[in-house]
Structures are given as structure tokens and as C-alpha cells.
Amino acid sequence: MRYQVPQFIEVEDKIFGPLTLKQFVYLAGGGGLCLTFFTLLPLYLTIPLSIPVVAFALALAFYRYNGRPLLVAIEHAFWYLVGYKLYLWKPRRPDEASGVGAPTKASGQPATLVVPKLSESRLKDLAWSLNIKDRATMGIIE
Fold it and tell me: What's the Cα-to-Cα distance from 59 to each of 7, 27, 29, 62, 97, rounded to whole Å?
């Protein structure tokens, strides 16, 4: 017995004409706020307040940033601003009083840092050995 597998499950259904439910809610909310401005405020205040509301409602409904809805980008920006930021590296200045700081030679000059060079074959060998060790720790291979 054959079953039909649903296709295009990531595409939202168009419920209100050419609009999805989310788009309709964003536009209806912006329109309702503009209607509230129009009924409660004089016209010279309504128009300047309504323009950003309409622009934001249109952006929420139709604008996509990096292939994602604008609301996702706003959420990520909010959590970035509110969230804890961990800085893993900051350069240190030499502190002569405590002797902590950049390494120095016996002559008092800063020591040079020697970085080993990896050839492409050595890098592939290293990556392969790390992959094998990682798989062994997970119990995939013995």
C-alpha cells in the first residue's frame, strides 16, 4: 500500500487571500493601531505616528532578512543585547610590579612566539586522528 508523502511542508498556507495568518495578524495589528491613533489623536499627530507603525507592520509581514522572517532577526538582536557576553581573549599589558604580562627574554626584550607550520598532509592526518579518537570515545568504533 502506497502513502502519499506531504511535499512543501515548510511553506505556510495562504488563508486570507494572498496572505498567511501571520502576515494578516501583523497587518491587522498595524492597521488597528493606526485606527486607534486616528480616532484618539488629532490629524497632525496621527500621520507622523502612523508612518513608522505602517512601515514596521509591512516589514514584519513581508521583509525577510537572510532568508528568515524579520521577527527572528529582532528576537536574536534582543537576546544578544540582553544576554551575557563571554570574552575569551583579551590582550594583556605587561605589569612590571607583579611580573605578570608578556614573556620576556633574559635581556629584557620581548620574546618572539614561534608558531609551527602545518602542511596540508599533516593537517589532514591530524584531522583524521582526531576524528578516529572522537569516534572511539563515543563507542562507534573500537
Answer: 28, 10, 13, 5, 57
Please give the pLDDT value at position 12. 75
With pLDDT > 70 as the criterion, what percentage of the chain qualifies?
70
**DSSP-derived secondary structure for the chain:** ---PPP--TTSPPEEETTEEHHHHHHHHHHHHHHHHHHHHS-HHHHHHHHHHHHHHHHHHHH-EETTEEHHHHHHHHHHHHHS-------PPPPBTTTTBSS-B-TTSSBPPPP-----HHHHHHHHHHHHHHHHHHHTS--
The rounded distance, in Å, linking the Cα atoms of 50 and 65 is: 24
* pLDDT reported for residue 80: 93
Percentage with pLDDT > 90 across the chain: 38
Angle between helices 43-62 and 70-82 (to 10 degrees): 100
